[in-house]
Specification:
Layout lengths: L4 E8 L2 E8 L6 E5 L10 H7 L4 E5 L16 H15 L4 E6 L1 H12 L6 E5 L17 H19 L6 H11 L4 H9 L16 E6 L7 H10 L3 E6 L6 H4 L1 H13 L1
Parallel strand pairs: 3-4, 3-5, 5-6, 6-7, 7-8
Antiparallel strand pairs: 1-2, 2-4
Helix pairs in contact: 2-3
């Protein structure tokens, strides 16, 4: 991503992550957290938009993007603690956290644990904060998952992209996504266990939720349900987008974020 410096940093003992940073550290921090099977580079349109006005922090989750891929260490709590450490390391006087898909759970986690330090949160492709129903396919041996990858990739594309999205973009995203090691993905999904359903009624900070109209993974109904659980939640259904809204409709998403964080 342009204007960002990428480093592998030991953010916690034995936990090395790829983190991209850039911009003026005297300004507000924008921390962007990608979802399961994603990567920090999926935020490139938002980085280009906001780099001149904010201090940008974009991590790759363990096992994703340019971060190392250990055999274990993918539980929700371990990844959440990574995000805590990153926030503590880079936080500014004002802080805004943006999350996508699984990354929205970490954004809400940070908002809960740093409620006096985080000013606003943006959630893209969000659903209520509770342990998801994991597809039984992730119980299969890893070698079987590798054999099934073409079918899984095709099914993912059906749920993740709007029918009007550029096919060339879809193919390029599928090629990159298909590089994710299946062992890592299996451990990641098995580790998506939260400590009960969270009471979000005490999260009074402003939270914007953006879900694509065609999203089959985090539906419009799920986004609205989450917004209703938040005292200061706002929900927007984004036309012409599905699960990867920030990439499918970058201008619209950037405009929504701009208006929200300026308010």
């Amino acid at each position: 991503m342009p204007n960002l410096t990428q480093q592998i940093i030991e953010i916690r003992p034995g936990r090395n992550l790829s983190i991209r940073t850039g911009g003026d550290e005297s300004k507000a921090m924008l921390m962007m957290i990608h979802g399961a099977g994603g990567r920090g580079e999926q935020w490139h349109n938002q980085v280009e938009k906001f780099i001149d006005h904010y201090f940008i922090v974009v991590p790759d989750l363990m096992g994703h993007g340019d971060s190392p891929v250990p055999k274990s260490g993918y539980s929700f709590i371990e990844l959440a603690q990574d995000m805590e450490a990153i926030f503590q390391r880079y936080k500014c006087t004002k802080n805004i956290v943006i999350g996508h898909s699984y990354g929205t759970a970490f954004a809400l986690w940070l908002a809960e644990h740093f409620k006096n330090e985080i000013d606003q949160v943006v959630l893209i492709g969000a659903a209520p904060f509770r342990s998801p129903q994991i597809n039984s396919i992730w119980k299969l041996p890893v070698f079987v998952l590798w054999l099934m990858r073409p079918i899984m990739s095709k099914n993912f594309a059906r749920g993740a992209f709007h029918t009007d999205t550029d096919p060339v973009f879809i193919r390029s995203e599928r090629v990159i996504s298909d590089r994710n090691p299946m062992g890592m993905m299996k451990a990641l999904f098995k580790g998506m266990v939260y400590d009960g359903e969270k009471d979000l009624s005490r999260l009074t900070l402003p939270i914007l939720i953006i879900n694509g109209e065609a999203d089959k993974f985090t539906t419009v109904a799920a986004g609205r349900e989450l917004a209703e659980q938040l005292p200061n939640g706002q929900f927007v259904e984004l036309k012409g987008a599905s699960h990867l809204a920030m990439m499918e409709q970058p201008q619209a998403v950037n405009d929504l974020i701009t208006a929200f964080i300026r308010d």
